[in-house]
Amino acid sequence: MWATLLLPLNADDSIDFARLEAQAETLAGTELDGLYAHGTAGEFQTLTEDEFDRINGVLAGTGKSFQIGASHPSAQLQLDRVRRAATLEPGAIQVIVPDWLSLNDREVLDFLRRTAEVAGEVPLVLYNPPHAKTPVAPRLLASLAEAVPSLIGLKTAGGDAAWFEEATKSGLSIFVPGHFLASMSRLGAHGSYSNVAAMSPNGAVRTAHDLDVEWRISEFFGQHVVPLQKAGLSNPALDKFLAAVGGWADVGTRVRWPMTAATQAEVNAARPTARRLLPELFGDSW
Fold first, then answer.
1. Relative to the CA of 34, which of 6, 28, 147, 195 has its CA 20 to 30 Å away?
2. With contact defined as beta carbons under 8 Å apart, do 188 and 164 qualify?
């Protein structure tokens, strides 16, 4: 169970590094297996290179196992992020398939091979969410893993039993969203870069394989997250909404322009529901 750093933002959209460091310190004291930065929830596409490096320094200084997301829509800039991230010796570097234009299978393989060369001894995790411009089908995973030995994991939305049957042939560690981990671990998932940990880091760990809790998380999402999705809020906005509902850190709901944030009224409305449906996530669990 891994959790992401979320960006606490000032009114001018600058990062409040004091609040970020406090958040990282809190997460370092949890039962989580590790921390990462610069996934979708970390708003990686909005970062300057100086911000990217400074956040990495905060992450590497926690003393907890960590991974760095080096993702960028540009393959060239992504390679440069990989190069700099590798010097911090993270447990892995997460990358996306460059996503302005779709790539064919040969191009995906070439991208991962060159990225692995730049990463050196640091292994790679392929981040391929549903909104990726190039969906990497399960049939391709085995050939990618064979051709790029340092590719060790896949960050994905998962799928049904047939999807997992094909995907697990690759031998990669398959990480799925936290609100599906209990059910998908029975199909072959190995862990989660968890959105549930955004709401409650320790609670997400303690309930990771509890199907009953997963069903009640789904009920909570149906009441308070799905309406925000339908209103057009982005995944970063939704994860910050969950963190605000959990109240374990001063993250705030603000997301970088031009994305729209959840309101405090929406957070306040969701808190009683979360605590009624999901008492296991709160109390001493944050």
1. 147
2. yes
